[in-house]
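[Backbone geometry]
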Amino acid sequence: MSELSEQNKITHEKQEQLEDTVSLLQERMQENTRSYLIDAHHRFCYQLRKIDDLNLESLERRYLYYKSSGGDTFIDHLMEDIRELPRVNFYEESLSHPQHTKEV
């Protein structure tokens, strides 16, 4: 009987370790997503001052995951700023403004 009790104790300790690892991974992913959204906000709002639909959709998806994991309201305000940006089609814009290349 003591052998079974010892095995249960070991199993319980391993389960606690796994739960701690999962919790730490979730925290890190949440912080990573938060940082990504902040960086994207700065890029699109301050540098480009516009956004295309594909990037907006991608940010919205990350934002939903962030909020479903308990994200804070600071990111809510950043996403509002991003949603208010003018929409562009970066592909068409790049065709109308080709970059000059140097001949080698």
Summary: The helical segments are 2-48, 53-68, 73-83, 90-96. Confidence is low (pLDDT under 50) at residues 100-104.
